[in-house]
Design brief:
single chain, Aspartate Aminotransferase, domain 1, 15 helices, 17 strands, alpha/beta, 4-stranded antiparallel beta sheet, binds 4'-deoxy-4'-aminopyridoxal-5'-phosphate
């Protein structure tokens, strides 16, 4: 048994009560009541989100922006209202939110739009994004592959050089290295708000200041922040930011790309086709202003409408309250893991940084996949593997780790059941002699 961990009496979220909103949690897995600690991979959806999508499909489903009939008008209104709600959730205006199928598409959209600008496509203002051989794209060592590989590909296509800000042993970004790295050649700085492996909130204001000082474009991966803390994208000052619906209690197949007005206006489109044009001849086409310029083809309409319900649900709890709850859950998780022999948390669990409720760890002598199966047999769902962050795992000398990640409905009991189970892993596998 791990040592008891005190709870913070000032808790503002009644996670146990919120569980009733998530029907999926009310089930047994392998004979045990489900403990879902994999919200970092995908979140569970409250009933109101499921109902909103079904209700739209049952009652008002229709093609948006084109039909002359009543249902089409209603669908369009619901869809554009959803844009306003989701944009508002991240502090933005509706015209600054582009729908995408998820964060991966949103980040690729930006990289391909810059590629198009490099090829001379777009309005005259697009030229400011063009990359030349020797220009630099700066990422961090902590990126999810979705905010790394598109930049590798862009660098390969344009002759730009990809550089990275290293992660320190404690899991924080080496900001001295960042200051030395970001210079006159830097054209893009792409970084994650919160690492999906470490759970640490990165110093966005400092990164934006460094990038702005040299006129570089900032692109933020907000997948692991938007669901868990109050995020005001305009106030953070980033040029572009991507987030994912399915990680913020919303449906699959929808996400957002936020962009500052002048950036969205000047970026050339990536995907082209229907719904994003003004005039079309056999030879050429003119494009609508943003956000429609970036929304070629049929959009994830029912998903966007349900995502707005997820944003309203989180707003109803209060994003500061969500963060306070998940920070406290994260503290319990880290304190408990740190106290178990043979468990090594990636990064310093005691580092004085802001976090979300997420931690990755290695158990000495036991493969992450075995740990995952051991926990699954006890009804506990975690993620194992490299979590699409291979370079960060390599930096910590690992190929895989176990990740536990929380949500609004995660209770102290969930964490305690998880910690008790982890404490029994090494003896079960006869690995007590191994060192981390
Ligand atoms: N970035 C981070 C930090 C993530 O955790 C994920 C999801 N694993 C992504 C990007 C990709 O998001 P999506 O699933 O919406 O493409």
């Amino acid at each position: 048994m791990s040592a008891p961990i005190a709870s913070d009496p000032a808790r503002v979220v009644d996670a146990a009560a919120l569980r009733a909103d998530f029907p999926i949690l009310d089930q047994s897995v392998n004979g045990e009541s489900l403990v879902y600690l994999d919200s970092g991979a995908t979140s569970q959806k409250p009933q109101v989100v499921l109902d909103t999508e079904i209700d739209f499909l049952t009652r008002a489903n229709s093609a948006v922006h084109r039909g002359a009939h009543t249902l089409a008008a209603e669908a369009t209104e619901l869809f554009e209202d959803a844009r306003e709600t989701v944009a508002g959730f991240v502090g933005a205006e509706p015209e600054n939110l582009v729908w995408a199928s998820g964060a991966t598409l949103a980040l690729n959209l930006v990289a391909y739009a810059i590629d198009n600008a490099t090829a001379g496509r777009g309005a005259p203002a697009s030229a400011r994004f063009a990359l030349r051989a020797g220009d630099e794209i700066v990422v961090t060592e902590a990126e999810h592959h979705a905010n790394l590989i598109p930049w590798q590909e862009l660098a390969a296509r344009t002759g730009a050089v990809l550089r990275h800000i290293p992660v320190r042993d404690d899991g924080t970004l080496d900001m001295d290295a960042a200051a030395a790295l970001i210079g006159e050649r830097t054209k893009v700085v792409a970084f994650t708000h919160v690492s999906n492996v470490l759970g640490i909130v990165n110093p966005v204001a400092d990164l934006v200041a460094l990038a702005r000082a040299v006129g570089a474009l900032t692109v933020m991966d907000a997948c692991q922040s938007v669901p868990h803390l109050a995020v005001d994208l305009p106030a953070l000052g980033v040029d572009l930011a991507a987030f994912s619906g399915h990680k913020m209690l919303g449906p699959y197949g929808v996400g957002g790309l936020y962009g500052r007005t002048e950036v969205l206006e000047a970026l050339p489109p990536f995907l082209t086709g229907g719904s994003m044009v003004t005039t079309v001849t056999l030879d050429e086409a003119g494009f609508l202003p943003a956000p429609q310029k970036f929304e070629a083809g049929t959009q994830p309409v029912s998903q966007a409408i349900a995502l707005a319900a997820a944003a309203r649900y989180l707003d109803g709890i209060g994003t500061d309250a969500v963060h306070a709850h998940e920070r406290e859950i994260g503290r319990r998780l880290l304190t408990g893991l740190d106290a178990i022999d043979g468990v090594r948390v990636l990064g310093d669990p005691g580092a004085d940084v802001d976090r979300v409720g997420l931690a990755s760890f290695d158990v000495a002598g036991v493969h992450a996949h075995d740990v995952g199966q051991f926990l699954d047999a006890r009804g506990i769902a975690v993620r194992v593997g490299h979590h699409c962050a291979k370079p960060l795992h390599a930096r910590f000398g690992l190929t895989a780790s176990v990740r536990a990640s929380a949500s609004v409905f995660t209770t102290d009991d969930d964490i305690d059941r998880f910690l008790d189970a982890v404490a029994g892993v090494r003896s079960y596998f006869g690995a007590e002699g191994a060192t981390a």
